[in-house]
Amino acid sequence: AQKITQTQPGMFVQEKEAVTLDCTYDTSDPSYGLFWYKQPSSGEMIFLIYQGSYDQQNATEGRYSLNFQKARKSANLVISASQLGDSAMYFCAATDKLIFGTGTRLQVFP
Amino acid sequence: DAMVIQNPRYQVTQFGKPVTLSCSQTLNHNVMYWYQQKSSQAPKLLFHYYDKDFNNEADTPDNFQSRRPNTSFCFLDIRSPGLGDAAMYLCATSRMAMGERRLFFGSGTQLSVL
Q1: Chain B contact for A36, CB < 8 A?
Q2: Residue A51 burial by CB count (10 A; 0-12/13-18/19+): exposed, middle or buried?
Q3: Residues of A in Cβ contact (< 8 Å) with B104
């Protein structure tokens, strides 16, 4: 069975600062993928970034980067230069069917 | 633009009255998923179709059924909705090819049960 753990129910960050959202995972699959999705209050799930378990380098997508530490089974999301529009729920998820963590609510303040 | 479309955006039904939620996709993806998301919780996978093969999660109640008449459409049927079934229902698709594992989500249907 796979399990995704997000230990931060809520995070606050000031605009233009960087923030790290934590995610640890537990899977027995030899090959897996890790995702981060953003869910604003409107409800849609917005894909942010993907990391494959065999990828040699950490994934980056614009202001988003993934700090992937395979030995520690962690896949933390780093958002640089936070914007007010980044305020949302953030979910970490793994593998093909996307088992989700419980999410972190990020609030960006001016 | 290619996308995943869910209708309706909001659905109200009565306790025990069958309801159907719909999802369509123009991405030609071979896998379609249904998730249930209750307030302040993570999305929970109910079932998915890999092409025509139906895959039910072990803890999905029998009250929930699904149909996929063709590649583009997938339906979620709730045979006798209870108050506890009020939730956001998210449809998603993926191509399930090597190196392509991203899920594409629709905007969801918010179901209320009166």
Answers
A1: no
A2: buried
A3: 47
